[in-house]
Amino acid sequence: MAYRSKYEKIIAASLNSKGVGFTHEPHVLPFTKAQRLTKVHRQSHGLSKDFVNITYHIYLPDFLVKNGIYIEAKGGTFKRESRTTLIGVKKCNPNLRFIIAFRYDRPIYPGSKTKNSQWAIKNDFEYFIGTSVPDYICK
Domain residues of the chain, as ranges? Predict the structure, then answer.
């Protein structure tokens, strides 16, 4: 199977070693993003200051474990776009369980005081750090 990153391959190997059934990039999930328009755009179209543009997107989760848990593997930098996407996916799919796998617990961007784990806690995401999928996910 072709994985998009070395970390995805490591997570897949961990799931396999524990005998956990899973699918890689099983399907897409819908989500929305709220985007504020610039003052120039709002004025040129006669829109109020409070106008927010809602855009529709799809998200391709990394793994779906047979017990219904989605795992998103973040081995490198946890970019702003990824963070806002995950928040949008969770908001639009409240009945799905997402767990973020972080290879390392480092700052979310260079110079930030916020680490990956702190961001996950603040935004109410389950997470784990490292290369071995915890046993509670595998049940």
Answer: 6-27+60-137
User: What's this model's pTM, rounded to 2 decimal places?
Assistant: 0.87
Q: Are 58 and 28 in contact (CB under 8 A)?
A: yes
CATH dotted code for 6-27+60-137 = 3.40.91.30
Region of 105 please: left (phi>0), alpha (psi -120 to 50) or beta. beta
Strand locations in 1-139, DSSP E?
Answer: 22-24, 29-36, 52-59, 63-65, 69-74, 97-102, 126-129
Residues 92-134: tens digit of each pLDDT: 999 999 999 999 999 998 889 999 999 999 999 999 999 999 9
